[in-house]
Amino acid sequence: MLKHGILGLLNYGSMTGYQIMEVFRDSLNYFWTAQTSQIYRELQTLKKSGFVTDTAIKGEGRPDKKLFSITDAGKDELIRWLRTESCLDTRSRLLMLTFFRGELPAEENIAFFNTVREEVMQFGRSLDKPTESALSYAQYVSSPENALYWQMTVEYGKMYMKMLEEWCGKCIEMIGENKE
Q1: Per the confidence metrics, is the pTM higher than 0.85?
Q2: What per-residue confidence (pLDDT) applies to 32?
């Protein structure tokens, strides 16, 4: 999936690896995380596959940079992925942990769900930043309506965090009722 995220970003315009990392940090990080090393490794794989090219930019007094650009083959791969990839992934670490929590004491499980709820609430509050970041990037792409779809991902995140917060409360309630 990182491959397609990078292709999607480069489809907006050429970028250095550092710029790609910044965009991930500022606007994609709340739903897809990537380390700098992963991005650079994936860029090399994309280059070998013929999906991106790079151009050396001389750094006067600084290290040289590589400017990455998407190729026609890369655009074709991005469009193929957008049209054919299944978007439902039912794997959830949280649900796997929950499924087996019966092995632990109720008090520990209540503390677990309280911690998850606090993390969810904190993350939910942070979702205002991606909205601002996404809108600030809108000026750099050829099709400003892309920002509409960026906003949809933020709305999904907000709704998902709200659901998780409510679910944690319900889990705590169910544990409490079971203890009685």
Answers
A1: no
A2: 86
